[in-house]
């Protein structure tokens, strides 16, 4: 079963599906939060919908001295990045852009998030938001190299940068089995480029919301939705690169892709809730002295296996 | 038909939007019991505490605010994007009706429309720099101008249309934009002619006098327009000492950029990489922050290079908070700032403890359960390796620092140590002695020395881990740090409150 | 039809690249100038995608956005002032710069027009990325692999030399002891 590119006519459907998965993740997280504070989980399940309605009703703010194009541009970029990212991820056997260098595409899009996060903090012209922007950038410097090498491992194993080829190469054995470290690092980095959970110090409570501090109304909604969409898109990438894409018994391939994406996202949400905020000053050493060597060691193992097979 | 549907959709949107309002609390120091009750009831209803004014739908004030706090609340109120509602709660009894009032206000479309149109186009001097004639700047005390209640963001809510009204003409920025920076020598002074020099005349030149002119190199060159270019030797620019500049001077100086916002500038940094120097006021309106505490910090990037702390006046009749509740609140704050999943449990147990003290010891069965739960939380927090990894070594206070600040001996060590100590105190039923008063006055005085050189995250955690609440603070600690004597005084105040 | 669309997209990207590139010098704020440059590079990267040089195009976007994100911070630090609020010119030595850039443009444009470009003789390779890699690296792989560690060592050495605090500042005479840093890192040192 080969992954084939489908017409761009399907792009809106892909966007809707992405937003659906993102909303499901947000609802699941809301239910967990409600459970933790002793409320009915059902109320939490609807929390994202309530929040979206609230923000649609709230007015936007016009800040004095804010760099509006950069500020709003940064906020919108998150959602755009998520949409661009799922463009190369196959849903079962279909993909929108059957790009020969899909893995590099994913990486390039993740770097857009660097810029978006910083612009969001810078543009608001607020001290807390600016510190948040710097925090996100410092964090990005800590996770980017482990992320790159985690992405390289499946590409080396499949001998191709095409996401479809990587899915096909897992028909015998999912890559997660023999490159677990790359998978784990990639999942952590998905949380990181979603600017969410333990990697949300740049919008943390100690900064009065950091890059989110000055956002209201639809501007805020766009950023929050963008974060969830990035988490959903990253989960979909993890499924394609490490969990065999649409492979699975009984159900059609697209259903497996979707199901696995939802499961990865749920696992990430649960994991994120268990961890405290990973402040950049602590994360830098972990990223460079633990994450990077582990990613390189895993890549070495993968390369040796590939050499041995050929 | 279409109209009705649109109206129906709007009503539905409103109904959904009001299911989960976000609120911001401004509590008078010494109103913690009211605040706890508010937070508890709001959480039960599924309301969310906002991190910043931009996020909030409602501003809820606890107690009659006065002075600095009232001004800060006013600034915050101006920043709420709207639809917005503001209510005051003066006792735990009033919480339910206050929340009801908030919902009523938020759903009252006519009121919101009026509010939106009536919002001051001319911003109050307090928060609005926009309309100000730049010439006013010289006379204004920059420090007193609420840069701080608003940590730069205060400029926030302003309507950009004001921007147009601004006396930008007085400093035509575009001219400066075109100026060739390297060409200072041949700068065409006629450009300056376009500038309204009379504005500059109004500037407080005496500030300039205090300044070392060589410092100007660090300033944006466009500021030079304000200065006497002729008198300055431009060739010196290269040799200027950027590092030695005293940034504090800038506070007093008119360093205003467009819109009159004070400009940030650079300063010498510990790692040699120069970051913006920002003056930010932490508190009095700030989430997870001791009520009534105000710390003005000078930030370089996110490192605090200078700090000043003071307490606001507290309520005339402060509400008395039990030591265990206060300890639990402290722990909850540290946990929330650290992003720990145990924060929610700590808040819930704080409220349960508070309810327990209000009910009295009648419900002993529940009390025992509560003690067990607190012990469980303590055990889980102690076991959490990630939390220890996150907090270890932060806000490390040595014995002599503790002594100098008049803090209790138990406060030595890092934030993690104090977190465990707080939880231990909260979980210990026999330690239910009233909060020891008296030491906080000195602690707040000594606070800057404990904060300077630390990063903002560490500062927040350090402050959260110390008992700096102004509840029960007396101008002069008559009994010193001796807990027993001070308790009596605290008790007297509490009794007064009841009476 | 698809040629038309491709042509159209190319021109849009081309104009975007040039205009945002020019805006770098028109903007009066560091952040805007930096990100205008980033937009210009993204447009160039996308144009490379149109030429089916997927890898080169994406790497251009990846590296340049990353670089601009970091560069914005350095611009702010090294300018030693806050250009966020205060408009400032992005142009230095305007006349010289204009002269040089006009000259360079003319030389390059003349090159484009006058160089006898070779005609395509065969069909493009199936995998352009692989064949590009072969062409650039193929016969020189050993050299490249030798250079990599040298380059990396140079980077590390430069950072070590540039750091204001040496290991003796951090550890004292006994280099095995715990370092005295203003901040503890995350791996328990």
TrEMBL record, chain A:
Cell compartment(s), UniProt: Cell membrane; Membrane
Residues spanning the membrane: 6-32, 69-91, 111-131, 143-161, 173-196, 228-247, 253-271, 283-307
GO BP term, example: aerobic respiration
Predominant subcellular localization, coarse grouping: membrane
Single GO MF descriptor: NADH dehydrogenase activity
InterPro entries attached to this UniProt entry: NADH_UbQ_OxRdtase_su1/FPO
GO cellular component terms attached to this protein's record: plasma membrane
A Pfam match: NADHdh
Keywords: Membrane, NAD, Transmembrane, Transmembrane helix
Membrane topology: Multi-pass membrane protein
Family: Belongs to the complex I subunit 1 family.
This protein's name: NADH dehydrogenase subunit H
Organism this protein belongs to: Quadrisphaera granulorum
Automatic annotation (TrEMBL), chain B:
Composition bias type Basic and acidic residues, residue spans: 104-117, 128-240
Stretch list, region Disordered: 104-240, 472-499
Comp. bias intervals (Low complexity): 484-499
Protein's name in the database: Uncharacterized protein
TrEMBL record, chain C:
Membrane topology label: Multi-pass membrane protein
Gene Ontology terms: cellular component: plasma membrane
MF-aspect GO terms: NADH dehydrogenase (ubiquinone) activity; quinone binding
UniProt catalytic activity: a quinone + NADH + 5 H(+)(in) = a quinol + NAD(+) + 4 H(+)(out)
Subcellular location: Cell membrane
Enzyme class: translocase
TM ranges: 6-25, 32-51, 57-76, 97-117, 141-163
Alphabetized Pfam families for the sequence: Oxidored_q3
Coiled coil regions in record: none
Record's keyword terms, sorted: Cell membrane, Membrane, NAD, Quinone, Transmembrane, Transmembrane helix
Entry EC number(s): 7.1.1.-
Keyword Cell membrane: yes
Sequence similarity: Belongs to the complex I subunit 6 family.
Record's function text: NDH-1 shuttles electrons from NADH, via FMN and iron-sulfur (Fe-S) centers, to quinones in the respiratory chain. Couples the redox reaction to proton translocation (for every two electrons transferred, four hydrogen ions are translocated across the cytoplasmic membrane), and thus conserves the redox energy in a proton gradient.
The protein's name in its UniProt record: NADH-quinone oxidoreductase subunit J
Annotated organism of origin: Quadrisphaera granulorum
């Amino acid at each position: 079963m080969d992954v084939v590119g489908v017409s761009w006519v399907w792009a809106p459907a892909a966007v809707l599906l992405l937003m659906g998965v993102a909303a499901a993740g947000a609802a699941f997280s809301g239910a967990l939060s409600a459970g933790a504070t002793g409320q009915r989980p059902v109320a939490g399940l609807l929390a994202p919908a309530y929040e979206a309605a609230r923000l649609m009703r709230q007015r936007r703010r016009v800040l004095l001295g804010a760099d509006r194009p950069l500020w709003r541009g940064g906020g919108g970029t998150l959602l755009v990045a998520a949409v661009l990212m799922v463009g190369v991820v196959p849903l079962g056997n279909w993909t929108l852009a059957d790009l020969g260098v899909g893995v590099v595409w994913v990486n390039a899009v993740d770097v857009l998030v660097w810029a978006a996060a910083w612009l969001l903090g810078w543009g608001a012209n607020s001290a807390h938001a600016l510190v948040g922007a710097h925090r996100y950038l410092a964090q990005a410097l800590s996770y980017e190299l482990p992320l790159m090498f985690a992405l390289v491992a499946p590409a080396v194993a499949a001998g191709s940068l095409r996401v479809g080829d990587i899915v096909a190469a897992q028909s015998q054995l999912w890559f997660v089995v023999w490159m677990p470290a790359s998978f784990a690092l990639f999942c952590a980095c998905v949380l990181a480029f979603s600017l969410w959970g333990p990697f949300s110090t740049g919008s943390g409570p100690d900064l009065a919301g950091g890059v989110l501090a000055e956002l209201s109304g639809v501007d805020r909604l766009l950023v929050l939705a963008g974060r969830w969409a990035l988490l959903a898109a990253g989960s979909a990438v993890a499924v394609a690169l490490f969990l065999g894409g649409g492979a699975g018994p009984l159900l059609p391939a697209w259903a497996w892709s979707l199901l696995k994406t939802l499961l990865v996202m749920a696992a990430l949400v649960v994991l994120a809730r268990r961890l405290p905020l990973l402040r950049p000053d602590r994360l830098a050493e972990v990223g460079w002295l633990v994450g990077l060597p582990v990613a390189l060691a895993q890549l070495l193992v993968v390369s040796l296996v590939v050499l041995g097979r050929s | 038909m279409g109209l009705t549907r649109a109206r129906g959709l709007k009503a539905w949107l409103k109904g959904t939007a009001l299911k989960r309002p976000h609120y911001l609390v401004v509590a008078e120091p010494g109103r913690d019991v009211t605040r706890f009750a508010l937070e508890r009831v709001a959480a039960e209803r599924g309301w969310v505490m906002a991190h910043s004014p931009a996020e909030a739908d409602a501003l809820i004030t606890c107690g009659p605010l006065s002075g600095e706090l009232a001004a800060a609340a006013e600034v915050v109120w101006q920043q709420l994007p709207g639809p917005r509602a503001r209510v005051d709660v003066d006792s735990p009894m009033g919480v339910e009706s206050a929340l009801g009032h908030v919902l009523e206000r938020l759903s009252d479309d006519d009121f919101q429309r009026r509010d939106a149109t009536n919002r001051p186009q001319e911003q109050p001097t307090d928060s609005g720099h926009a309309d100000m004639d730049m010439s006013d700047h010289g006379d204004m005390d920059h420090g007193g101008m609420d840069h701080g209640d608003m940590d730069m963001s205060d400029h926030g809510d302003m309507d950009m249309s004001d921007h147009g009204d601004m006396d930008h003409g007085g400093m035509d920025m575009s001219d400066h934009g075109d100026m060739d920076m390297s060409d200072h020598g041949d700068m065409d002074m006629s450009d300056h002619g376009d500038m309204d020099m009379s504005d500059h005349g109004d500037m407080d030149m005496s500030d300039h006098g205090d300044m070392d002119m060589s410092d100007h190199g660090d300033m944006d060159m466009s500021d030079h327009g304000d200065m006497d270019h002729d008198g300055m030797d431009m060739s010196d620019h290269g040799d200027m000492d950027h590092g030695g500049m005293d940034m504090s001077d800038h506070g007093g100086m008119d360093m205003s950029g467009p819109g009159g916002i004070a400009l940030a500038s650079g300063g010498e940094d510990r790692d040699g990489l120069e970051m913006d120097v920002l003056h930010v006021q932490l508190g009095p309106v700030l989430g997870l922050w001791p009520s009534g505490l105000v710390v003005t910090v000078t930030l370089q990037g996110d490192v605090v290079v200078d700090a000043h702390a003071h307490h606001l006046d507290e309520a005339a009749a402060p509400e008395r908070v039990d030591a265990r509740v206060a300890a639990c609140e402290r722990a909850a704050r540290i946990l929330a700032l650290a992003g720990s999943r145990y924060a929610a449990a700590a808040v819930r147990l704080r409220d349960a403890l508070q309810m327990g003290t209000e009910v009295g010891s009648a419900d002993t069965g529940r009390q025992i359960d509560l003690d067990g739960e607190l012990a469980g939380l303590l055990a889980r927090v102690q076991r959490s390796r990630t939390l220890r990894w996150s907090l270890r070594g932060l806000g490390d206070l040595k014995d002599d620092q503790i002594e100098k600040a008049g803090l209790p001996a138990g406060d030595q060590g890092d934030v993690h140590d104090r977190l465990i100590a707080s939880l231990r105190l909260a979980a210990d039923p026999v330690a239910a002695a009233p909060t020891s008063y008296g030491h906080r006055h000195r602690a707040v005085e000594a606070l800057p020395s404990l904060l300077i050189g630390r990063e903002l995250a560490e500062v927040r955690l350090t402050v959260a881990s110390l008992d700096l609440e102004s509840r029960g603070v007396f101008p002069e600690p008559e009994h010193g740090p001796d807990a027993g004597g001070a308790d009596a005084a605290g008790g007297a105040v509490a009794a007064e409150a009841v009476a | 039809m698809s040629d038309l669309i491709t042509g159209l997209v190319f021109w849009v990207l081309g104009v975007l690249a040039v205009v945002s590139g020019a805006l770098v010098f028109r903007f009066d704020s560091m952040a805007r100038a930096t990100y205008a440059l980033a937009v210009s590079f993204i447009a160039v990267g996308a144009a490379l995608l149109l030429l089916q040089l997927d890898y080169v195009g994406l790497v251009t976007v990846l590296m340049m956005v990353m670089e601009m994100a970091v560069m914005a911070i350095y611009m702010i630090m090294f300018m030693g002032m806050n250009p966020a609020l205060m408009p400032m010119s992005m142009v230095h030595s305007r006349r010289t710069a204009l002269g040089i850039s006009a000259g360079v443009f003319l030389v390059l444009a003349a090159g484009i027009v006058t160089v006898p470009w070779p005609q395509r003789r065969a069909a493009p390779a199936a995998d352009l990325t692989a064949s590009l890699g072969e062409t650039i690296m193929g016969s020189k792989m050993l050299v490249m692999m030798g250079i990599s560690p040298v380059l990396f060592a140079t980077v590390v050495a430069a950072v070590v030399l540039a750091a204001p605090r040496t290991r003796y500042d951090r550890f004292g005479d006994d280099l095995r002891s715990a370092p005295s840093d203003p901040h503890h890192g995350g791996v328990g040192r």
